[in-house]
Amino acid sequence: MNALAFATFGISDDNIPYYQLICAAYWTMMGLSLLLLLFLCHFLPYEIRCANHPVTATSLATPFNILIIASIIGNMGLFACHSFKWYTNTMPMFILLNSVSGIFSAMTFISAVLYTWLRAKTVVEIVNPSLTPILRILGTILYPLLIVSVAVIDLIAIATDSYKQLATVEMILGMINGVILVLFDAFTLGVYIVYLKRTSRDKPDLDISRLLVICRYGSGVCCLLLVGTVLFVVGSSFGLGFLFDLFYLGMHACAFLGTLVLCGMKVALHREKVAEKERKVLQSTEAKGKANIPMGVADGNSRMESFISATKVIVGPVT
Known about the structure:
The protein is mostly helical and about 325 residues long. It is built from ten helices and no strands. The termini are far apart.
């Protein structure tokens, strides 16, 4: 690792081993993200073939697939920047990688929030339709706008050599963005909890079972994004330094786990879709079997069931 970067930021020798662990954590998450991307490259065509559809660019490029792949690529770029920046030979390159990581971070979080919203809006419209425009504005307009603004400020800071002067503005915008994300996640999580409570005592039908999968996994994503936002806000209060980098790592780990949960949601929805198809085939087979029973046998069975029911009412249950 480059001693110049440590010396420039005033990192003591005692903290260097901790930064080496942080760097190793970013390398590990980058490798896991690559494995996740390779898994999706195999799973997405498989999912389409299971639905008896041809694997084409159109069938692959659905909004959900695009967002989840963008989230994984954003994670990989983010982790790569935070890993390589400690191996740079010049400070301008160090700052450039640090700023480019902000673009990948924006890509990851925007993709995760938009994916969460696309999955959650059906549940929101069922539980409380009045929240739909509020969550749409928070998740699809304000949050992406502010997080992109932070990334642009980073690039301006590099171009004008005013990194330290704009750091405060960037931190304030990041905290405002964190508040917006907390509101979005809190409302969405609340909707999921309400829906799960409403349906916990009922036997879910085929459509509700898919919504329950979305609620369970969506709740996990919202919790991780909430924790990541809290870590960012708390870390920002310490200013630049070891504690900030440590909390920043925690925020990025939450983003990675959130992407992992989104992939899990996609796999779980596919399994539920396959199970739904099997249930329909079974129901169709049973219906055909009943339709093929001769009329006399069916009438005899019906009369026998009526006689047994009447006996239970008059005599009592047979032991």
